[in-house]
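Researcher: Here's a chain I'd like modeled. Treat it as a single chain, no partners, no ligands.
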Amino acid sequence: MDAECLFCKIASGRTDTEFLHETDALVVFKDIHPHAPVHLLIVPKKHIRSINDVDEEDREILVDCIMTAREMARRSGIHESGYKLLFNVERGGGQVIFHLHLHLIGGWNR
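Model: Modeled as a single isolated chain. Structure tokens:
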């Protein structure tokens, strides 16, 4: 855990962020600047700076993020209409908070 990292603070319960889902390994909450009707963040509790910093030992965390995103899409009612899963990697890739997180984005009427 990084004491200064916003997502470490959120994942450890040191903020008033409402979790939609929580396990021993990760938390899920709404993005405060949503880009779609459904915009959730799936955030590992372990501090990993970005995809570039994932080690072999983190493989299960990535699988857990993706499987949780799939379940949250089902719970949000967008699993059939479609959704995006997105990892922003480094500044050039749009990463603003340097703690690995997966965006679940969807819910548009098409």
